[in-house]
């Protein structure tokens, strides 16, 4: 096979390691960093995979590939295949994940999964012992080894961002405001629900009933008085407190539903104001008035 040195430097990050160490979490984090993500790739397909993107994708292409003991003949095939591709000039890196026996036994107990090498005995510790011995030569090839024993899921995700973002931009948090009428039901996609039926209701004013919460006259009516002003301030403060915490937790989408009786007046006015005034950096907002056209 022809060397690819000096050709398009597509990047391939191979993820392997002990079962239960968080390979799926790492793969999802890399996908958020715009890596093309593939789980449980057979070893024999690795050479074909690294060749295809070089012909069809630009130089920014990055792929994260999980290959581990689930793959047929992994132990026999992986090291020689990986080394051969490196010699041919492909830009491959190897990330190896490990953890303590105590941590892994606890994780398998919590998920009630069987270790892939536990055999007829079903013993997790026997499976781990076999796996450590089999993967020792593979670990020696790793560019990066991470012991995930001390990491929560969210901390491991942050560690991957720190190691592999290289200035790349993560998807910003998508903040979705939805207004609705309680008579039509709460939106099932809502993460947070705020009932604004305590605010003054323009429906009972004949001059405002036919309008909606986007009209300045309705807005003035809904927001009259100290109570509405205090509510807007406090709810805005709450959202601006929660959003950075959700981002740290790894959330990429937050849907805030605001409801009033019919979804025409109060909820619409509040959502419009929030969409204009939420000022957390790195957050994109959308606004949808679900029931504004309902009779």
UniProtKB/TrEMBL annotation:
Transmembrane segments: none annotated. This is Nucleotide-binding protein. The keyword Nucleotide-binding applies. InterPro entries: P-loop_NTPase, RapZ-like, RapZ-like_N, RapZ_C. GO terms for molecular function: ATP binding; GTP binding. Keywords: ATP-binding, GTP-binding, Nucleotide-binding. Gene3D superfamilies: P-loop containing nucleotide triphosphate hydrolases. It comes from the Bacteria. HAMAP family: RapZ_like. GTP binds at residues 68-71. Residues 174-292 form the RapZ C-terminal domain. Residues 12-162 form the RapZ-like N-terminal domain.
